[in-house]
Amino acid sequence: MLPFFLLLHLLFSFTSAVNSAAYTPTDYILLDCGAPSSSNLVSEDGRKWVTDERSKFATSNSENASPKSTATSAYLALSAENGRPASLIKEFMVPCFETEKLIVTFSPSPNSFAFVNGIEVVSMPKGMYVKHQEDSVSFVNSKIPFDIPDATAFETVYRLNVGGATVANVNDTGMFRTWRDDSPYIFGAALGTVPSRFNVTIKYTNDTPAYTAPATIYTTSRTMGPEPKINMNINLTWNFYVDGGFNYLLRLHFCETQSEVTKAGQRVFDIFINNQTAEHDADVINWSGGNNIPVYKDYVLLTPSDGHSKQTLWLALHPTKPARYQDTILNGLEIFRLNKSDGSLAVPNPESSSSPSPPSPSVRKNKKGCSLVMIITIAVFSGVFALSLIICVFIYKHKVRRVKDLAVSEPKSSWAQLPCPSNSTCTTSVSLLPSDLCRRFSIVEIKEATLNFDEQFIIGSGGFGHVYKGCIDGGSTTVAIKRLDSSSRQGIREFQTELELLSKLRHVNLVSLIGFCDDLGEMILVYEYMARGTLRDHLYKTKNPPLPWKRRLEICIGAARGLQYLHAGVKQAIIHRDIKSTNILLDENWVAKVSDFGLSRLGPTDMFQSHVSTVVKGSVGYVDPEYYRKQQLTEKSDVYSFGVVLFEVLCARPAMIPGLPKDQISLARWAKICLKRGSLESIVDPNLMGDISPLCLKKFGELAESCIKDEGIERPLMNEVVWGLEFALQMQESGNMNIVNMEGGDEVMKSCSSQTSPLKPGRVGGGTTTDDDNEELFSVSGGKVSESGSTISSVGRSVTRGDLDRTKSESVFSEIMNAKGR
């Protein structure tokens, strides 16, 4: 096997220290392509490069076969124009048998040219990456062996020193591979820790020879940290961009160098690749046989070819609970793309900007100093501009008149379809908008989208102001436009908070912020449009048909995943602080999305802090009582609010109904009482009679109750809530043959007959509600509201697991536990 390294316009910044190599290549060629014969280049790392004159360089489209020199300045200008780095290195491993010659050919695309600045050819040990039947690897999540034949070609996509700094190629084991820092590829807030043991001696073996990887790779590592309770609720996750339609070989390097881990079974974890189980109960000591002994594991993953050039490859490690140290470890990682059956490693070319037009030949000027060509050009452009201006004015007036006429003629509906120009199609999709940018709108664009804030298009109102439905980009995209009260100091803080947080967040279960407008003192936020309104719109006091139980469960799971991402999927946890049924929106496909981040706060800055001290804010009926008493905000405050929403979904009644008996005013309190009496069925939405599996109802009730425990330490984390809801959904789907028929359950209904139930059969809303469920925001701070900044308490963080049942089920996964792509 001969791997060759293709380098384009090399720029070296390597260290000069060269370690004694574990492998001496039999062939080692460094070509300085295009250099004159007198060239004798010595790079900064001490390696000598020779000209390529003796490599029999030839071109196929020219009679002159002499070497061609490429001006460095020209390449730099080209790369700067295309926004690409000034150097590019491509590394391949290709088979070259004894009777064969290594021929490197560049075949440019039409209207293009090929060039290369340098080529390295380095031999490598036989069988280093090629695997045969006796030691073949398997596909991820499959026992089917994958044989890598001798003729397989590889392209190196990633090679990482996990937990350590970049290892330069001259410090490799003799094959001049570069091992890069892994930190840019870590996903989420769980960065882990990077213990290093440079004073240990790595004990290489026949299975893992010294040339496999440098000792530096095995003396550094990335683990999850010393907090087992935290580790059990997160993953150590990396993500990488790869091209679809190829098999990928992933080589994971391990070595236990920590003195605390000395026996098999002390550190055991699962390995997930693209949300598929690659390894159950991985145990490095068990694999290697002891401390300081390196070992590697290979896995093959097939990425589907779905028409997208780039896909995300996820690697996640999660500890196994019975182990002594609930932790994971990884020392190094290599990812290779394997050639297709036709031998190809080619991927689609990236889109490039069109080449600049060559300068036109000079034209003789007339006596007035102006060429004939220039006169004609100016005349043509002036005519086109005038004609375009007339057409734009006509279209704008036609659109305004048509929108106004239709708005008046249509019945007023909070979610009515907004009229759009006849030559465009309204859609709720914002996929055409850039997902990583927050767009700045002018007030003119906002007024045009809302027809100067016409009341016909108001779809929501509150203390913050009004929400309008509008169309942007010529009517092609429907959006929700929230105009905050510019005279409110509270509104200013909420505007700034929501803009700062949402502009950095992207998740399928969070409402996307498209842009904002702050012209003329306005505070306007533009969101993706949610066609089905709020979750409450489908529970009570509505003309919408009641939702079936399965759909309610799926909506709860979606909202829970959004909250889970806020708590554990970002660098610093975000506490929403205002979770309620009106802040969970539904798109046209019933996908739930958490919205309204005006009261949100960043959580504690590290794992040793338990809460953020701040004034109490939220909505009546949803506020965590512990937060209310102590004014200490934690992620568990969101869990409490979400628990109230779960009961709201189950019972189809507001969180607060002042007109009822004392025990029934608060939904959370009333649900606890009924659960304690064993009569949860008595407060379930009558529209769900005969629709809920008994096991699902039991699981859902226990989960919701655990969320509204008085003490935050007793409540589950959001990833546990997601897991519990997914498990309840599984119970519902598998128990449809044994549905609870509440209409026939007379004894169950009678068990609570002495109490006035807020839900009467046949009523959707239940109770007597007027203005009691407006959920006005409140702020409490010992009688006096403070506007000063929050303080963070540095006490031990408590993340004890809740009382939720933890039945192991391989078919039930949550986003964090199994590293789903977000």
From TrEMBL:
Keywords: ATP-binding, Glycoprotein, Kinase, Membrane, Nucleotide-binding, Serine/threonine-protein kinase, Signal, Transferase, Transmembrane, Transmembrane helix. This is Protein kinase domain-containing protein. The keyword rRNA-binding does not apply. The chain crosses the membrane at residues 372-396. Residues 1-17 form the signal peptide. Residues 453-728 form the Protein kinase domain. The lineage of its organism: Eukaryota, Viridiplantae, Streptophyta, Embryophyta, Tracheophyta. SUPFAM superfamilies: Protein kinase-like (PK-like). GO terms for cellular component: membrane. Residues 779-790 have a biased composition (Low complexity). It comes from the Eukaryota. Pfam families: Malectin_like, PK_Tyr_Ser-Thr. PANTHER family: OS03G0124300 PROTEIN-RELATED, OS04G0586500 PROTEIN.
